[in-house]
Amino acid sequence: MKVENEILNSNPDNNPSKKKKELGFDSQGIQKTLRLHHYLGDGVGMIALNAISGLIGMLTYFYTDKVGIAAATVGTIMLITKVINAFTDLAMGKVVDMTKSKYGKARPWLLWTTIPTALAIILLFTVPANVPATMKNVYAFITVTFATAIIYTAIAIPYGSLMAMRTKSQEERGKMGITRSIFGYIIGMIIAIILIPLTNMLGGNQSAWIKVAVVLGVLSSISLYFTFLSSKEQNDEKTQNEIEDNVSFLESIKLLFKNKYWVIMLFAQLFINMMYVLSGSTGVYYTKYILGNENLVGIMGAVGLIPVFLGFAIVGPMIKKFGLAKTARIGLVLGIIATLIRCFMPYSFMAALILGGIATFATIPMMAVGGVLVNNTVEYGEWQSGKRLVGMVNSANSFGVKIGSGLAAAMIGWILALGNYDGALAKQPHSAITSILVLTVYLPLALFIITYLLLRKYDLDQKYAQIVKELAERNNK
Questions:
Q1: Residue-by-residue DSSP string for 188-207
Q2: By the 8 A CB rule, do 334 and 144 touch?
Q3: DSSP assignment of 128-171
Q4: Architecture of domain 35-233+247-475
Q5: Contact of 346 with 314, CB cutoff 8 Å
Q6: Where are the domains of the chain?
Q7: Average confidence score pLDDT of the chain
Q8: Full-model pTM
Q9: Does 393 have pLDDT greater than 90?
């Protein structure tokens, strides 16, 4: 037995305390817990999430132009399903906090959702073609609800919670946020760039969309399994026992709304996710009816990768120099300037290419640090109330995200309908063109401004290290 213990202690992979010592501490003196393969394995999970969200973003076009569902109906379906999704997010947060398994609280959900994820993605595009409109609408509603309110939620809330459960280091959380954003953006851009050209190459019909969905569904399942394998919840025994079984659902909500930084992020995430939905879902309308060639969406997306790569390359150094929140604010200012200029040349392809690229660059910092800024409110809330609400912090914040993205998805359908858009027409009326410009140029400007104003109030970065120190002192008593 003595020899076995000596061998275990000599191998850092079998000795967690030795591994932690080797990793050292971050610049704020907080213990590090993650290695390179942990970051990569964690980031892969974004493939499943962004495959679902990216395809949901393209559903309006698929429904209106491929299976003949009215734009206003699509908008209403998207809003209702997002509202349902928002409430299932809240429930899922409580479920995560109460989950007990040998894998932890959040991690097992990544395993349990692998197969259902592929099924949900494929079902989105199997709308019965030769049936009455009512049946199409009902099928669309059921499958979107299943994909977003059940499967996406069962992945997103545990996955978001893992960030707070794996490390307390802002530095490591920042790296996790960047890695997740890179993986998420890659799959999002692949969908945005090649989905339309690829489905057109495969015939442009519903069958083509289903084939692509099968591939993305299988890829998503594999990515979730890899994230499960590479994940480990790092909370110590005392923290693990600080579960919220004794905190009622309503009390959890009250505690969250007393957390001012969580409230700021609730609304900031709401508005920035409206931006993400608009940018990911309306480009095909802009290229098809403003520029006259829907395949240009692929070219614009490809060129748009340049500011994306640049953004991800410098966001790490920016975080190190300016901190998390200030990095996000700098990006938002750039977005405001670029989109404001574009308002004066909305029909210009070059303006869309160059200024749109700058606006894309401007979203990268917030994309990278948004989840980190949310999870840092876990420690603030624990410091403030004595309750560590990891699942509820992520799920209730996701409530705002879903409401925002649901509103954006609904607004696409409603604004198009208000402009008398008709997917069966090769040339749209002037009112429809105006509606498309509102969705692609003017509304994004407003969202940039609102999100920036909200983040001006977020100053938790400067207080975080002291809060973690005080929490550690409390737990050691």
A1: HHHHHHHHHHHHHHTTSSHH
A2: no
A3: -SSS-HHHHHHHHHHHHHIIIIIIIHHHHHHHHHHHHHH---HH
A4: Up-down Bundle (1.20)
A5: no
A6: 35-233+247-475
A7: 84
A8: 0.71
A9: no
